[in-house]
Design goal:
This protein is α/β, with parallel strands linked by helices. The chain contains 11 helices and 7 strands. Strands 1-2-3-4 form a 4-stranded parallel β-sheet. Strands 5-6-7 form a 3-stranded antiparallel β-sheet, with no helix packed on it. Strand 1, helix 2 and strand 2 form a beta-alpha-beta unit. Helix 1 crosses helix 2 and helix 2 packs parallel to helix 3. The longest helix is centred in the N-terminal third of the chain and has 12 residues.
């Protein structure tokens, strides 16, 4: 597969064009060289035009499948958002590196797979998602997989690089407040806060205390969008006050 931007200098020029005009960007970069090229481009921008920790939700990198140690700190300092998909790890790789992805990348890069915990520890904003229709879209199993580093509902599987597991709170933030930052909407969404849209979902378990496998199998009791009930399994209806 050929890269869409075979010449990094052309990509950097495109970044300068959009960033200089205040246009948010999302870059697909999955490996160490690709991520490094994105960081190089944003670090070379004139002051005030790139991503900064003070202005989150401006530019993001999608996927980040394998990233070496030296890029973790640079990523955090850059202010770029990380957008990652836990089921890419749990559905397409194996702990023993016998899968196609790991075999092609080799042991060193496979051991740097989907470094969610390290990015969070470095202070990076980490939005989580599904990459549907490439991968399964159900949010609850994805939240569980982010904590388990294996497929939820398969307790016999070995976790994949288990040190990169997220906590329950970090996983939930990835689908709420950090996702809102990635979309540039933290001022109006991403948390249940006075003045924001009343967007929330009610489960039959507490996502912060439930065992991840139980969370993956939880029932959705109700969903509200901007204060309006859009789904109810218990007869709830009407508008929130």
């Amino acid at each position: 597969m050929a890269p869409f931007w075979p010449r990094p200098e052309e990509y950097a020029e495109a970044v300068r064009f959009f960033a200089g005009r205040g246009i948010p960007t999302a870059t697909h970069a999955i490996g160490d060289a690709g991520v490094a090229a994105v960081l190089d481009a944003f670090e070379s921008l004139p002051p005030g035009t790139g991503a900064t920790p003070a202005l989150p939700g401006v530019h993001r990198i999608e996927h980040l499948e394998t990233v070496p140690d030296e890029l973790i700190g640079r990523f955090s300092r850059s202010g770029l958002i990380a957008s990652m998909q836990p089921t890419h790890c749990t559905h397409y790789s194996r702990a023993d590196h016998s899968d196609n992805w790991s075999t092609r990348l080799g042991t060193e890069r496979a051991n740097n797979a989907w470094r969610c915990a390290d990015l969070r520890a470095a202070g990076t904003v980490l939005g989580l998602g599904s990459d549907w229709p490439i991968a399964p879209f159900e949010p609850l199993p994805i939240l569980a997989d982010a904590q388990l580093r294996r497929r939820s509902g398969h307790p016999g599987e070995q976790p994949i690089v288990p040190g990169q597991a997220l906590t329950a709170r970090q996983a939930l933030e990835g689908y709420t407040s950090h996702a809102a930052r990635a979309a540039g909407e933290l001022a109006v969404s991403g948390s249940i806060t006075v003045g924001k849209r009343a967007d929330f979902t009610v489960f039959d378990v507490d996502p912060l205390t439930a065992a991840p496998d139980d969370l993956a199998a939880a029932r959705v009791l109700a969903t509200f969008v901007d204060g309006q009930a859009r789904h109810s399994a218990v007869g709830t209806g009407g508008q929130l006050s």
